[in-house]
Each structure stands twice: as C-alpha cells, then as structure tokens.
Amino acid sequence: MTAQLPEPSPRPVPPGGIRASHDDREAVVEQLRDAAAEGRLDFDELDSRLELALTAKTLGELATLVADLPASPSFSGSAVESRKPLVLKGGMFGASLGPGRWEVPGHVIAHGGVGGVSLDFTRVECRLAEIIVEAYAETSGVTVVIPDGWATDTSGIDPGVGGLTDKTTSDRLPGTPLIRLTGSGAMGGVVIRHPNKRERRKLDTPWR
C-alpha cells in the first residue's frame, strides 16, 4: 500500500500581499486628499494616486502610495480606523446645514449638484483645531459661511470654471478652527465668507 503524502501547507502571505478592503482604500484616499490640502501633492499627483488607490488590490499597493507622506492614524498598513465624513448633496433642490447648533465633524464633503449647498458654521460650538471642507461646486455651487475670527486655507482647491471667491479675513482668533477648503469650483463656483449684513442682524437676535 502506497503511503499518502501530506498535502503541502499553504504559503504564508506577506503583510503587503493581504487583500485591501473598501475601508483600507477609503482611508488612503482621505490621507491623499489631506496631503494635497497641505501642499504635499499637486493636483496631477493627487489624481494619479487617487486612481491607483481606488483600484488597489493589496495593502502593499496602498502603502506604496503614501510611503512618502506623514503617517496617518486612519491607515496603518494593516488596520483602519474609519472616520466617516459628513456628506451633503445638493441634488435637484439644494441642501443646507445651519445656521444653528450642530455637531461639527473634522471632515465635511459638499456636492453642489443642481440645487447647490449652503454650509453655515456661524452658530456652532467647535473645539477642533482644523476642519476639512471638500467642496465640489458642480452646477450650482457651494457657499461656506464661517464666524468672524475663524480663518481659512484655500490653497487646496481647484477654482475650475466657476472660480473661488474668498471674502474671509486672516484675523484668526486663538482657539478657533482653521477651515481647510479643498475640492473644485467646477461650473457653479465656491464661495467662503463671513456673515453678511442680513445674517448679522439675525445673529444679534437671541437663538431659540
């Protein structure tokens, strides 16, 4: 009787060869966008790396895309701590958030769509040092209103055809957030400003 040979054990998979999950890809996409907002990547590099990140099959492929960037807590190469951004979509009829007291996340994504998006921070209480706002104006644009004393960094946005209108001041008060504005002006344009006269009159009215 012929002795049966044992089946060969499966070869161990190297760490970089582990299959990437959707969360892994999303974490790297977020890290790449943050790097572009900080000026570490130009728009061509960002587009190229985003395309590779979204089609990556393994953790090793993802790690290569961020190897020359500061380490991110969202992507460690083997585990992901997902931080879900707040997403607003203008759709056909538009969307708005604020004025009012609402919980501010560290990352907001606004898609203007056909109806446009308005994002108003004037009555919020926020202890974050920075807030990333990704504004994709699309057809009708995105408007961001921030309180006096807050500042913004718009170096990470592509003005597109619609352009970027920045009516904010650089007089940032201690302890207030910095709005890092990224995305694209597309056709509708992106506006970031402090409250206008009409909005200021409403701010002087006690909130109920």
In words, what does this structure look like?
The chain has helices at about 20-35, 45-55, 60-65, 195-205, and strands at about 85-90, 95, 105-110, 115-120, 130-135, 140-145, 150-160, 165, 180-185, 190-195. By secondary structure, the chain is of the alpha/beta class. The chain folds into 2 domains: about 15-65; about 85-205, no CATH class. It has a 5-stranded parallel sheet, covered by helices on one side. The chain has a 5-stranded parallel sheet with strand order 2-4-6-10-8, with no helix packed on it. α1 packs antiparallel against α2 (about 45-55) and α1 (about 20-35) runs parallel beside α3 (about 60-65). The longest helix is centred in the N-terminal third of the chain and has 16 residues, at about 20-35. The N and C termini lie far apart (about 90 Å).
Give the structural class.
Answer: alpha/beta
Task: Name the poorly predicted regions.
Answer: 9-13, 78-82
Largest beta sheet: strand ordering: 1-3-5-9-7
Distance between the termini: 89 Å
Biggest sheet: strands, sense, closure?
Answer: 5 strands, parallel
**Overall number of domains:** 2
Strand content: 15-25%
Number of helices: 4
Average pLDDT confidence is: 83
Fraction of helical residues: 10-25%
Total number of β-strand segments?
A: 10
> What best-fitting shape do the alpha-carbon axes yield?
globular
Give the SSE order as H and E letters: HHHEEEEEEEEEEH
Whole-number radius of gyration?
22 Å
